[in-house]
Amino acid sequence: MRKYFLLLSFFYFSMSLMASNILIPMDAESQKNHLKAYGITYWVLSKQQKVHWLLNYRGGSFLLPDGDAIRKECQIRGVSFEILSTAQSESILAGISSPSKNQDAVILEKAPKIAVYSPKGNHPWDDAVTMVLTYAEIPYVTIYDEEVLSDKLALYDWLHLHHEDFTGQYGKFYGSYKAAPWYIESKENSEILASKLGYSKVSEEKRDVALKIRNYVIGGGFMFAMCSATDSFDIALAAEGVDICEPMFDGDASEPNYQSKIDYKKTFAFTDFTLERNPTVYEFSTIDMTRTRQLSKESDYFSLMDFSAKWDPVPTMLCQNHTSLVKGFMGQTTAFNRKQLKSTVLVLGENKINSEARYIHGIKGKGFFTFYGGHDPEDYQHRVGDPKTELELHPTSPGYRLILNNVLFPAARKKKKKT
């Protein structure tokens, strides 16, 4: 009887040591492919399994259910993982829950449906988001003006805005590229599409697209934008009903004194900005600091803000990384003038020396938006015609991790606010 009891005790002890979870570490030392780790997490969510996102624990690690299929998938994709027993998992979660630690465990419940707003002819490597989604093996659907104007946005949980110009000024490329075949073709295609959709001007069509996207966010959608899609979106909202385009863009003159007619109350993030009136200048307004910043490539970094994981889980999620210092990178819209941010906007990443915000977040209605300055986190000064970035060479990129934080953000279970 005693022998039987000892065997039974040993059996239960052995079972307690058996793996019950897979930990995907996200610190710098343990993870060899941070970007594909997000893809694994998304893949598990797509199998209707829940994931714990361990905020501020080893760089924002993921705790997954154990299973042979998940282990195999990690091995295939080259993602580092650790096998944990029930006791080890419970110990980690207990430690994270301690009031003395700036950590928290957020439950991710479902794989968000992702849409990328981008012209159909663009290649995935034209945009950092489509590039990293493809590399991380996270599925997405490409949509454009026709889908937006026909109310297809409601089908998606998360929307990324490609490097678009919502003001109808064709990216302000006129000064340098008006004779380039690609510019002429792009302008012509935009005019054909606007006409097909019943508009006489591209600027009017883009305005209505921006308004539809605004309503999507207000209704509870998650919107992420980079580079010129950030400020041009807000400018289009503020200039609703005002002609700010010169003749080379829409065939007639802009309204006299249009600056005084800009309505800052309609924007998401920016206020009190001055529009760039010269059509040959590659800039939209004073929101962007590309032309005024005094930083060399070697000294261009921005720091991520430190938030309370238990009290401010949303900004904490968006800032998860294996480093608090991220390499800067340029774009048509590189960085945001802090003096022209609304007081309701939260700065997630900044360069204090230059008084610029690089990464910002806010709430609009029932939804959320995140704006990220710059074009490509691993290509400092991407120019027209430059080769694409090979993410195989940058699998641990901190700048690209910020994009993927936003992708998983809609998967989080909503917590009751602490009061």
Label this structure with key terms.
Rossmann fold; 13 helices; 5-stranded antiparallel beta sheet; disordered N terminus; signal; 419 residues; alpha+beta; single chain; 10-stranded mixed beta sheet; Alpha-Beta Plaits; Asparagine synthetase B
Could you describe the 3D structure shown?
The protein has 419 residues and is an alpha+beta fold. The chain has 13 helices and 15 strands. The strands form two sheets. Strands 6, 7, 8, 9, 10, 11, 12, 13, 14 and 15 form a ten-stranded mixed β-sheet that branches. A five-stranded antiparallel β-sheet has the order 4-1-3-2-5, with helices on both faces. The relative contact order is 0.14. Residues 3-17 have low confidence and may be disordered. Residues 1-19 form the signal peptide. Keywords: Signal. This is Asparagine synthetase B.
In short:
The chain has helices at residues 2-17, 34-46, 68-77, 86-97, 128-136, 145-149, 174-177, 181-196, 202-218, 228-238, 247-250, 313-318, 398-408, and strands at 19-24, 51-55, 61-65, 82-85, 104-108, 114-117, 141-143, 158-161, 222-226, 301-304, 325-327, 336-337, 346-351, 356-364, 367-372. It has 419 residues and is of the alpha+beta class.
Layout of strands and helices, then pairs:
Layout (H helix, E strand, L loop, with lengths): L1 H16 L1 E6 L9 H13 L4 E5 L5 E5 L2 H10 L4 E4 H12 L6 E5 L5 E4 L10 H9 L4 E3 L1 H5 L8 E4 L12 H4 L3 H16 L5 H17 L3 E5 L1 H11 L8 H4 L50 E4 L8 H6 L6 E3 L8 E2 L8 E6 L4 E9 L2 E6 L25 H11 L11
Parallel strand pairs: 6-7, 6-8, 8-9, 9-15
Antiparallel strand pairs: 1-3, 1-4, 2-3, 2-5, 10-11, 10-13, 12-14, 13-14, 14-15
